[in-house]
Amino acid sequence: MSRQQAVQGVVLTGYTSSSDAFPQPPASAQQHGAPAPSRRTGHYNVQRARPGEKPPYQRCNSQDSLDELALDDYWKEVEIIQHAGDAEPQEEVQLKVADEGEQEEAWLTEAGLATLFDESAVDGEDSMVLLSTLTRTQAAAVEKRVETLKQTLRKRNKSYSVPDVRDIFKPPPSLDTKDSESSSTEGSEHRKTEATSSGEHSGVGNRAEPGGGGAETETDINLEVSFSEQALSYREGSKVTQPVNEADDKLPDFKVVRDKTGMTKVGDLSAADMKKVRRLVLIEMTALFDTAGIDLKTHKPLKIRVKESGLFGVPLSTVLEQDQKRVPGTRVPLIMQRLISHIEDEGLHTEGLLRVPGASTRVKTVCHELELKFYDGLFPWEALKQHDAASLLKLFIRELPHPLLTVEYFSAFISVLKFPTKKQQLQALNLLVLLLPESSRDTLKALLEFLQRVIDHKEQNKMTLNNVAVVMAPNIFMFKGFRSKITEQQEFAMATGMANIVRLLIRYQNLLWTIPKFVMNQVRKQNTENQRKMNRDRAVKKLLKKMAYDREKSNDKVDKSSEAEGGIIRVQAPQFTKVSMAVQLTEELQASDILARFLSQDSSVSVKREELCLFEIGGNIKERCLDEETYMKALLELNPAAEWVIKSVQR
Question: Which residues contact 599 (CB under 8 A, 6 or more apart)?
Answer without folding.
Answer: 605, 609, 612
